[in-house]
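Consider the following assembly input.
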Amino acid sequence: MTDDVTEADAHLDFDLEVEEDDVGEHAEAIPLGDPCLVVDDLHIVFRVFGGKSREQAEKSGAHVEKAAPPKKPFVKRLLGAGRQHVGAVSEVHAVRGVSFTARHGESIGIVGINGSGKSTLLRAVTGLIPPHSGSVFVDGEPALLGVNAALMPQMTGAKNIEIGGLALGMTPKQIDEKFDEVVEFADIGSFVDLPMKTYSSGMAARLRFAISSAAIPDILMVDEALATGDAAFKARSKARIEEVRQQAGTVFLVSHSISTIEAMCTRVLWMHQGKLVMDGPVEEVTAAYRQFVRAHRQARSGGRAGGTRRGRNGGKNKRKG
Amino acid sequence: MTSEKTPAAGAASPGGERPPAPVPPDPIVPAISSAERLALAERYGLTKMGVRPPLWAYVKDVASRWAFIRVLGTASAYARNQNTYLGQLWAVLNPILNATVYVLIFGLLLDIARGGVENVVAFIVIGVFLFRFVEQSVNGGAQSIAKRTNLIRSLHFPRAVLPISNVMSHLTTLVPALVVMCLIVWSSGYMGENDLVPVTWEWLLLVPAVALLWIFNMGLAFIMARVVAITPDLDNVISFVLRFAMYGSGVIFPVVRYVQELPDALQVWLGPILEYQPIAVYLYLGRSSLMDEEAFVQDPTMWILGVIWAIVFFVAGFIIFWRGEERYGRD
């Protein structure tokens, strides 16, 4: 890799992005209840097929460890020549020993530069990615805000509301009751009877958010879902999140926008290279994190004045282990 | 993939004028020990995540998701054929074309089916249509977990929903195809020197035969889903095994007849295996329901075997799948 701006650098700008309408807003404090989530020494390891060899991956800074060697050394020797392509299995240690406790009514933001394990931590805490070691204890059912994986672009919006609702564990009757509310919240009007692939990306994002927030879970996990949508929609989403907190639920939020985190969270976890490096009240952690990101960006861009600013869509690809 | 450099690596790189990369705070040391956290979890009655539920609770959980299974199954059946001009017609056209190829090559050209079978067209058509259901279930089941990691990593639901709904989607397209199959079998009576195929009440037995096949297929799909989710390489082997199963089950020619030409020692054990293995049993049940031939009379033994195979495969498959429940989605 050259000394040019890496992909991660491009994201650093994104990390510091300020949403004007969020500035100055703060999440209201809600009296905290009993612990509702205990994470104990959590490790997440992905098995990656056909991955790069360890040496190569190390160069690019990934925490890749070789998987346990195959049982038959002879076969391994046979394959030795093309090992990078045949039988290449490596492991990515995405979360490395994270412990924390969350209480009812807390709204927790997770920050960290790209590849620091934020999204993986969120999914692991939701119980969607089984831990390699360590454990997660919860009160109630955590739900990740995001049904997009269950939806089918070929089907109509109405059918997708049904599929998404069922995927979230709602009964057909509950979906009937919520149907109009979802359509109204998503603001898609008569498009509801057209296939979802005909929607604009904003409409599709609104519908996805509306479907996934139709059920109000005990612990709500949001992964950058607020990045799309207009201001009015953003305000409504925020109200939805507040609603969950008022009902003594807990909210986790991964966002690239520090101002969004500041506006919505009461506590922030800072992840770096799969480890928790800071955990505390929102002002304290975001101040330190901001400073770190600025310094990090300066160090990267070096002599170049002001750093390189890339488009905000310059590769929002999330980890797909 | 993680792609950022470690701060240390960034600082060591050439281009000396740049300021040193910042170092994030050291990882925090938790204020309380692991044992204290576990005690805390216990005190407030928190449940541990990612633990495989007990079998009975799992069964109930899957059953409660019946609406999801149905909707997901029918919707994906619909979505499968949606991007074509003929659309849903392909659900019927596809097996017809498939059967036509086999009838032309094996039935007419090679005349391979002549071995106690009079109506070759009906024999091959029933075989091809029913075997297609098995084939689709095995392939669909194999991919139901492996290809839907995204879904598994974003929502909670008992994972058994995926293979079940996949088989359900194939059943959805099978039903109209079966109607066409019955029509072809009936009209085959007017082709060549075939005897007329009488439509009797016996034809209704096709319904339980297909129902048993469905249950059997779900069992297969469960097994394939777990196996391929854990060892993705096996996905490549499936098509060969399926082709072997096709020729070994008498889908396009009565394989049992050929066994008689083998040496006795081999015949003794190979004969019963080929005749009573599950796929052959379900093909027999389908054929005996529709065809009016001596080779395919109603046989209670076959029905009992059909029930046994369905239950054995479904129960075993379900348990095999359930035992991997907490692993799906990790890799």
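The longest strand of chain B covers residues 47-48. Ask yourself how this observation constrains the way the partners meet.
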